[in-house]
Amino acid sequence: MSSNATATVVRTGAGSRFVIYTLLALFCLYYLLPLYVMVVNSLKPLSEIQAGGMMALPDVWTLAPWKSAWSTAQIGVEATGLRPFFWNSIVMVVPAVAISTVLGALNGYVLTKWRFRGDTIIFGLLLFGCFIPFQMVLIPMARMLGLVGLAGTVPGLVFVHLVYGIGFSTLYFRNYYQQFPTELVRAAMIDGAGFFTIFRRIMLPSSGPIAVVCVIWQFTNIWNDFLFGASFSDFDSQPMTVALNNLVQSSTGVKEYNVHFAGAIMAALPTLLVYIVAGRYFVRGLMAGSVKG
Amino acid sequence: MAQVARNRRGGNDWLREALPKLVLSPSLAMVLIFVYGFIIFTFYLSFTDSRILPSFDLVGWENYSKLFRIRAWDTAITNLLIFGSLYIVICCALGLALAILLDQKIRAEGFIRTIYLYPMALSFIVTGTAWKWFLDPGIGLQAVIRSWGWESFTFDWIKDGDMAIYTIVIAAVWQTSGFVMAMFLAGLRGIDNEVLKAAQIDGASNFALYRRIVIPQLRPAFMSAFVVLAHMAIKSYDLVIALTGGGPGTSTEVPATFMYSYTFTRNQMGIGAASATIMLMAIAAIMVPYIYSELREKS
Amino acid sequence: MHKYFGGKTALAAAFLATAGMAQAADVEVLHWWTSGGEASALNVLKDDLSGQDIGWQDMPVAGGGGTQAMTVLRARVTSGNPPTAVQMLGFDITDWAKEGALANLNDIAEEGGWNDVVPAALQKFSTYDGQWVAAPVNVHSTNWVWANKAIMDELGLEEPQTWNEFVAALQAAKDAGYVALAHGGQAWQEATFFDGVVLAVGGPEFYQASMIDLDAEALGSDQMKEVFDRMATLRSFVDDNFSGRDWNLATAMVINKEAAFQLMGDWAKGEFLNAGKVPGEDFLCFRFPGSQDQVTFNSDQFAMFSQGEGVSDEQAALANAIMSPEFQIAFNKVKGSVPARTDLDASELDACGQRAYEDFKAADASGNLLGSMGHGHANPASVKNAMYDVITAHFNGEFDSATAVEELVTAVDISK
């Protein structure tokens, strides 16, 4: 454990450690309970669900709902499952997340380390922009996209997500960089390092934890967005959520809950993967030496 | 600091001076057009007779006077106040507590962190169904506990117009508190250990260490958390639709569902715009002083 | 001359001005039919078109009985990228026609003789200002009662003919320990009750005056108070656990012999059939007692968005395919609804379907075919939802019948 020099130096005794682990485990239960309902029901035949006992383990275990959700469930006229829509989502999410995270980091860097008159007001403006209700954005945004010829295209969709994600990514980085010792930046300037050199050499290497937070936020929001995805895509670029919604919300048909749950878990897998992969960078002190001012 | 750099380098003065502003300008331009431009547009629409599509025919204050005659709007505002305050307070408290616990050199930290975070990954389109079942007294928690022999156990909030809004708080906290935990954890990991070690040598207790040194340093993280949570509270739409659909009756209507319904379902875009305008003004009344005081203190 | 620039307002015209850039030789279809049965029915249409070398670009957006799709449609039209054809309901068609966005189908209608085979009550929505703008696909009717036959036999119940008989049947089921009325507490489901109750209380004239003409006197009348009183009576036969339940779970209660009756549109039949139940043997379907002669309907239609030069060849082909007798029968067989034209041989439909088709034709002939309020065919979306608010608040006990009548008058007034 001592090799893992990541956590706080605050020491705790054996008794309180038992309490801590118990608490952490209890909360694991709270967070896992709905997932249990979903997983259990995604492994049952539909008849078992209809007969009741939604909390019970399956009598007959089956993977059929998963196969159906992936490749044979009815999404529209074609029974394609969710498979073809994964790629549409990935093409949209990856650039949108990458660009908004980089922009957010640069903005946060400027707003904390290269301050100028009026920078606080600009940050305030970016921040308040987070609160605009998307319902009101839809129609004027559609018009704007139409005017510049981006209606129904993937770049258009990426652009929309970028615009409404920038406030948050700036917020995360600005508030994180605020704790970062300004003396280091100043010393580098005196040494003659330029704007981007300082950003790359000094700021970026210690941005791990906040970059994780930002990527998780942006990835989750953009991946799970339905309103923009449905409104600004075309028949050949509909994202995953629209397909999942079509699977789940069919109006007057039979509701195949087991397939719905399997589809929902499946649709969340890329996000989960991001959490796990990005989580590695949650370690403090990648550049601990240089941070200590 | 820019002064120092310029003295050393001499040439390229203008570029060096302007570079930070240039970097910031695309974001600013986007926000000015696509946020503030659209806010002005919405404000304008709230005075028109827009129905299925925007219209330019002005009708004065009619949309506002209609809005305040609609019962569901009162309900929506009250619900937002109850839901928003409980949600923000509980998420912050729980998120901070979990972050502190998880920052104690925990074995399998990555695993536990992922469990706390995963609810964020799931779209409420379907998670809502799982919650709905779980909260349903006929098949969910109540039925299970009764089947274990505790016959009088009752948990039917979701079917009770006065309590249903609290079930939305439970599900919302479940979804985002893990993310708030991550934000605080990032903040904790940004704190300089030297200060803590020094205080420890001076004999400070763990509790004092957190109260006096750690938590004050988390102020920027608190601000991020507050903004994120306030935003989620105001925009929570999927959650309410999936869990209660605004019911029983209209008892869990919130402004986001109200706005959507008037703008799109009911083809009364003018009233939808009026409700959005009022929401934005209310948000401004709360957020602007808070943001102002937070930013002022630091500069 | 198209009405693009003669639309309601200058801005609306500007918003619509760039419409009409869809690819030739393909049709892009926005719809919300994503369940297995519905989609396989649409495939009949798709295959028909591909036989004529016309490609089908699928744009399904499910949710909220089409409201999601309508939101998406607004964004698509505003951005100058409208789909070729769009599934629509009732007053939405009229609203879009008013904006001048829909293509004129008169030539095709003339050729196909639509005027003679489509009932006038449907034409009210398929045409605007004397022009055909949409092709109707089906007719659902909403004033049905679904019953578990085993429970009825066990309690010795006959098909109730009047309100009082129905209440007696419900009481008998309740006394025997069953849930008398399976119901899901969602506004539209309660509004579905309301359709039937209004008809049963005041007959078609009262329905016409209050629900369609929105006559303030009818809305505030004593008859309306009686309607709300009966809604409260129905409420007393619903189990405690009803709120938020999906309609199909309520249907499952009837299927599983937990509940005796359900009031729901004809799409409920699919759930029974899917569970392997046989109409007439395991379950019964009959009109809401007191509204035997009337049919409250809703009808899915496909509207064609104007492509600049009037109707394109692809749109014409699609419209023709929709109105063809083969498609009307094939589609409605799986959908549980009845064809939108009155001149077809219904022998391929099942027992409930044939009965519904006869009812539909008879109601059309006698002027008893009425647009359903609960499903957006009696009054525009704003009014419908205002009525939902009052009906559902009253049903959930937020106020008594007298207050509900007052609220109804105010709500309709605000939303008109």
Automatic annotation (TrEMBL), chain A:
Q: Name one GO biological process term.
A: transmembrane transport
Q: Where in the cell is it found?
A: Cell membrane
Keywords of the record, alphabetical order, are: Membrane, Transmembrane, Transmembrane helix, Transport
- ABC transmembrane type-1 domain: residues covered: 86-278
Matches recorded under InterPro entries:
MetI-like, MetI-like_sf
Q: Does the keyword Membrane apply?
A: yes
* Superkingdom field: Bacteria
Q: Where does this chain mainly localize? A: membrane
What topology does the record note for this protein and the membrane?
Multi-pass membrane protein
One GO CC annotation: plasma membrane
What parts of the sequence cross the membrane? 18-39, 85-109, 121-142, 154-177, 198-219, 261-283
What's this protein's family per the entry? Belongs to the binding-protein-dependent transport system permease family.
The name this protein carries in UniProt is Carbohydrate ABC transporter membrane protein 2, CUT1 family
Source species of the chain? Primorskyibacter flagellatus
TrEMBL record, chain B:
Q: Name one GO cellular component term.
A: plasma membrane
User: What processes in GO biological process is this protein linked to?
Assistant: transmembrane transport
Matching Gene3D superfamilies, A to Z? MetI-like
Q: Which domain of life is it from?
A: Bacteria
What keywords are annotated for this sequence in UniProt?
A: Cell membrane, Membrane, Transmembrane, Transmembrane helix, Transport
CDD domains cross-referenced by the UniProt entry: TM_PBP2
Q: Which residues cross the membrane?
A: 21-47, 80-102, 114-134, 163-188, 269-292
The record ties this protein, via InterPro entries, to: ABC_transporter_permease, MetI-like, MetI-like_sf
User: Could you confirm whether the keyword RNA-binding appears in this record?
Assistant: no
Tell me how this protein sits in the membrane.
Multi-pass membrane protein
Its annotated compartments are:
Cell membrane
Q: Identify the PANTHER family for this entry.
A: ABC TRANSPORTER PERMEASE PROTEIN
Q: What family is reported?
A: Belongs to the binding-protein-dependent transport system permease family.
The protein, known as:
Carbohydrate ABC transporter membrane protein 1, CUT1 family
What species was this sequence derived from?
Primorskyibacter flagellatus
Automatic annotation (TrEMBL), chain C:
Q: Where is the signal peptide?
A: 1-24
Q: Where in the cell is it found?
A: Periplasm
A Pfam family reported for this protein in Swiss-Prot or TrEMBL: SBP_bac_1
Any one GO cellular component localisation term in the record = periplasmic space
Gene3D superfamilies (UniProt xref): Periplasmic binding protein-like II (3.40.190.10)
Tell me which SUPFAM superfamilies the record gives: Periplasmic binding protein-like II (SSF53850)
The family line of this record is: Belongs to the bacterial solute-binding protein 1 family.
Q: What is this protein called?
A: Probable sugar-binding periplasmic protein
The opening ranks of the lineage are: Bacteria, Pseudomonadati, Pseudomonadota, Alphaproteobacteria, Rhodobacterales
